[in-house]
Amino acid sequence: MRLPKARASAVLLVLSAPEACAPDRYIAAIYEHSVVSERAAVPVSPEEALVLVDKNMAILEAAIKEAARQGARIIVTPEDGIYSWVFTRETIYPYLEDIPDPQVDWILCADPGRFGPSPVLEKLSCLARSHCIYVVANMGDKPCNSSDARCPSDGHYQYNTNVVFDSEGKLVAHYHKYNLFVTEKQFNYPKDPQFVTFNTSFGYFGIFTCADILYHDPAVVLASRFQDDTILFPTAWGNTLPLLSAVQFHSAWAMGMSINFLSANTHNFTLDMTGSGIYAPDGPRAYYYNTETENGHLLVTELSSCPRLSPDYPAAVNWKLYASRIEQLPSNNHCFSGVIYHDLFSFMELTEPEGNRAICQQDLCCHLSYKMADKQKDDVYVLGAFDGLHVVEGQYYLQVNVFCSYLDSGKAAVLSLQPICVCLIFWKSTDLNTCGQPVETAQTKFEMFSLSGTFGTNYVFPEVLYSGVQLAPGEFEFLSDHSLISVQQGIIQCDHLPMGTDSGQTLYLSPGNLVGDTSALSQGKDLDLREAMARKKVSSRNAEGIQRECVASLRAERRLLQLVINKCPDCWQNYPVPSQTTHQKIISKANLLCLYSSSCYPVYIPHARSRSCEAPAMLPSQPLLHAAVFALAVLQALASDTFIAAVYEHAVILPDVTDEPVSPNDALALMNKNMDVLEGAIKEAAQQGAHIIVTPEDGIYGWHFTREAIYPYLEDIPDPAVNWIPCTDPTRFAPAPVQERLSCMARNNSIYVVANMGDKKLCNSSDPSCPSDGRYQYNTDVVFDPEGKLVARYHKYNLFMLETQFNYPKEPEAVTFETPFGKFGIFTCFDILFHEPAVVLVSELQVDTVLFPTAWMNVLPFLTAIEFHSAWAMGMGVNFLAANTHYTSISMTGSGIYAPDRARTYYYNMKNEDGRLLIAELDSHPRLSPAFPPAVSWSSYASSVKRFSPNDHDFSGLIFHDQFTFTELTKPEGNLTVCQKDLCCHLSYKMAGKQEDEVYVLGAFDGLHVVEGQYYLQICTLLKCKSTDLNTCGQPVETAQTKFEMFSLSGTFGTNYIFPGVLYSGVQLAAGEFEVLNDGRLISKTRTTKPVITVMLFGRWYEKDHLKQDPQPPAFP
Fold first, then answer.
1. Is 829 in the active site?
2. Which of 356-360, 370-374, 452-456, 1040-1044: highest mean pLDDT?
3. Which of 29, 147, 684, 1102 has the most CB atoms at less than 10 Å from its CB?
4. Which of 829, 985, 1020, 1033 is catalytic?
5. Which among 170, 796, 823, 1104 is annotated as catalytic?
6. Could you report the per-residue pLDDT of 878-902, keeping only the tens digit for each?
């Protein structure tokens, strides 16, 4: 006789309960799923959505069935595992279901029609019920309440949601992800964090998702306050070496929080998504990491039901006790800075195969004792520390102690993350500039190591990562006595890292000490550090005195280079970040070129509207001809107060991407193709009377390079003081075909030519900063006068984070040169966001015109090229010639000729890959022009008025990773105020026929921006939101319909460096349609001729760039 299915499930549940309750262990399973996904530009029908869901559910069902067959009590599946992540807010909607509160006591498999249609929930319930197993899955929830004033305009909230079904198929838990990742625009944030727990017969469980793990709520609360036994963790985790690979960080978190942790990741190796595991407080039980195939993987293993009652449960740790008591070590001179995932670490090289070292940053000092086993000559290790606020994909404070190694092909061992103390990291090459770049393999093993730090927190996550991105289960541990290596002293000991172990890769040190030794520990004994050092013949000097080295020098004198994501796009996506730069004083005085000195030549003919350099029948000698033309240029230039300027936006011909250098001939062939195009533009500019032309950054060879691959494209560019005309004397120095050709272009067309290329400077061991390959490589601008003489050379000082093919100059260069039509300065791309050299050239050296080669990737709403460059010219009161590269697939376009009062001409084109020549007339000395703007007291008006409106309707939103405070313009006209910290922004406005489907907000930001660089901003803005959903405010918008009769924007700024701009629909400037009054108000002159996208007052407070970031509202509310 066969029981009905429902009754059979009940019997199985009753039978399974005593079995689960009786033992103190249970079997857990996770499944890493290679998600089936489809991208759609518009929403699909619910039926089509269910088809995709069923494809994934079929795979998950097989994994669930197999896990149950192996005796698993619970299985966790990944975040986004049912439908993937390729969605907008609109396109994900057909995949969502309304998930009720588990208190409704609902078994969907037995009662599917109780609520609305829920085919996904029903299927999950039946999978759990049919296989008598707890099932954890991630899907989308869509609740809403019409009485909720904050309900989104589309009538529903959308939540990234985890659901748990018990072995009867009953919904027992649902959790809405609280800390959304920056790209999860399809979902809403819950109003408050949810602390979701549930009881089972085999322990007490909590649940959260992916980025939640980096924050206090709900992750730490569940483990510390609710005392969960096991955390369930669906995730879609993109690995970021050396500190944040999935298996590495999740196992470290389990150990640091002393909790079981079931982590199920999605599998998509093209996005570096892999790494799942089942982790216990004392180490991983099983894990999976595979970047070679797209195969999913099931993990099944046994765990303690109540780990706190287990004899293996780690003792409490006072993480800083040991590190705080030891004496100081003498300093050494091997300190430098490097970047790991956009955070600037302080590093110190380990020059000996064994020893004691210390490195400090701010309040964190990290101490290391170590002995290498057969150190490789081409390996370099460093000890590092980071103590600061990480602000890229989220905002969280870290303290990191890192011990790093470098090899020709290597990886790192990370010690701690708390903040973070990382002890052992293996680097990509012997070049210290590669420290922090992702590496997956290493060769060096360690006899022992001991790592500790003076942490200010007890939340410390320890781990060791081996070559091949493998964990080191059982090979390090926390000691428990009160000696130098006791747990109370905060020491972690690695007990099996002798000759026979895998190569050390990454060790996470929580605030404590990490020690590696073998023999005594393998016998279960505690080992005093001095005894361990004697046994391994480690140097005993200062055994108890591992101390702070390189403390203040790396604070004040290292420029804080916090990197991310993407404004000036020499800035490209898949390059590693630069690791070293020095914050030095600016050059004390400029090398001013005299108009009539032998070392500098005046420049070209200002008002010759057309001319030809073709010779008549009888000509004087070539030198005499050039002298005559030059003399004529001087006379005409001195007579004129204006000149003709040109810029050329160039669609660069790119080389094939390769890590291996091409031959010099192949490199020159590619450069000549680009110079052929540039020569045509230069000739045309000269024919139209231009006196100077600017070409783009990377315009001669592109940007697809490693340090090695760019080398054949570089030339040795001499100091302009050598008085060299390459066109007439090409062999004076080493072969320089690019300089020769540029010189001849200038000479043959009697025009100043500005170009960007690469400079190489040899160095040797007498220079302690000399790179390991024996040369410096610089991103360099060159200027040739109408005679073809090299008159200026500038090495880019503020490299974008991905320009690892180049070195930083030791000091900023303030490069100027004189012409008959004004004094010129030059800098490149990312330089514009910093004080040196950009502000110095204008404010201190009083240049009339700035030359600006750039490879600028547009970032709306503030940092499109034409918008920001025209605003900078107006704010600084200077002419500005900006030549951008043209490459629309990465949003590179936008060049212009800008005067202090308005743009003279500009070009922005995302529709095709055409270059463009721009020519316009400018004042030679704009400060003497009647149109020169008066001085502005930027906070005068705003400080004198009372707040226009209360903050009842204020809300937060992100613009390029910065959290703004917004208030909505709910009426067609009015006066509003919004404040953040010390900045209050005031707006008076009147719309001309407000569109119902458009929302505008007034926004304020007062804080330190730390993504692709670190710089302090104060911004007041009026901007259009992407949709009527306020969650979209701050997202890029290119079109609008609403015009304004008038607007007036002002702010209580603490800086005088304010850059005003107005951007119209279609990414067009509002040249001549607005002005800045001397009391600091940016006002419209008349009704706007086009709909408005953005009105901005973009402030830079340079003095605060290197201050510690103030606490701000969390980036993930």
1. yes
2. 1040-1044
3. 29
4. 829
5. 796
6. 999 999 999 998 899 999 999 999 9
